[in-house]
Amino acid sequence: MSNQYPIGTPGTPWCNEEKQVWYQQQQIQRSYHTNVEFKVKSLSDICTIEEYGVLAYKAGKYSLFALKNKNYNPEHATILITGGVHGYETSGVLGALAFAERYIEQFIDRYNFLILPCISPWGFETINRWNPDAIDPNRSFYANSPAAESRLAMEYVDAYSGNIIAHIDLHETTDTDNSEFRPALAAREGKVNHNWNIPDGFYLVGHTQKPEPEFQKVIIEEVQKVTHIADADENGQLIGVKLEQFGVINYDGTKLGLCMGMTNAPFVTTTEVYPDSANTTPDECIDGQVASILGVLSFLSSQN
C-alpha cells in the first residue's frame, strides 16, 4: 500500500469538491495544437481529415480529429487505430500519426484505415490519465458514457462499425501509473491502493471474449524487431494479471468499458509500451507502436 493520497479522506469516495481540488492542481505542460493538431493537418496530402467533435472545457476548446485513407473503399475491410485515450501516453499518439505518415499508402489497395490519434487532448496537454471531470476515458466506452472523449469517439466510429475487421488501441504503462494514477484512483473511489509491478518492456492486452492468441503472437513477433518485450514477474503475471503467452495478458474489454471493446471487430488488442525503461528511447517507443500496427497487417494478410 502506498502513502495516503493528498486529496480526500481515506475510505471515502470523492465528491465534486475533491474533484475540483484535483482539477485545480492540473497544469498545461505541452500543446495539443503544436504537437498533434499541426501534425494531423500536415498529413492532408495522404489522408482525409475529419473533425468528429469538439471538447469544450474551462481550459479551452479542443477539436477532435480522425484520419482516413483517401479514396476510402467501402468494399475493403477497415482497420481502426486509436491513440491518446489516456492523453499522457505519448507514443500512442505519435505512433498512430507515424504509421499514417510512413505506411498508410502502402496498404490502401487492400484495407481502409480509420485513425483517431488523440482521443483525450486535455489529457495530452496536462500529461494526465483522466479528463477534467476526473473520469478515465478508457473505462468509459459504453452507452451514455459520462466521458465526452469516449462518447464522441464511439459515435463517430459507429458509422463504420460493420466493416471494422481489427482494432488496435495504442497505450503505455509508465512509472506514474504507480506514483500518481493508481493512488489517485484509489483515493477517488475511497479504496485501499495496491500498486502493481511495472513491466519493463512492451506487452499486449487481448480481449478475454475474443483472445485470438495467434493474432497477438504475430504482433509480438513484429514488435520484437524494434524493441524488447516484457517478461512476466515472479508470479507469472504482468500488472497483476496471468500471462496468456509471451508478452500477452487478457482483459474483458467490453465489461471494463475499454476502448478496445467498443466495436464488434473480431481482432482487437491494446498495446502497452514502457517509455521509462532504461533500455529504450522515445523514438523506439513510437517505432514499437508502429510495429504493432504492422503486426496486425501481417496477421490479416496471412489469413487471406
Automatic annotation (TrEMBL):
Gene3D superfamilies xref list: Zn peptidases
A Pfam family hit: Peptidase_M14
MF-aspect GO terms: hydrolase activity, acting on ester bonds; metallocarboxypeptidase activity; zinc ion binding
InterPro entries: Peptidase_M14
Location of the Peptidase M14 domain: 31-304
Gene Ontology BP annotations: proteolysis
Origin superkingdom: Bacteria
Recorded family membership: Belongs to the peptidase M14 family.
Protein name per UniProt: Peptidase M14 domain-containing protein
Organism: Pseudoalteromonas luteoviolacea DSM 6061
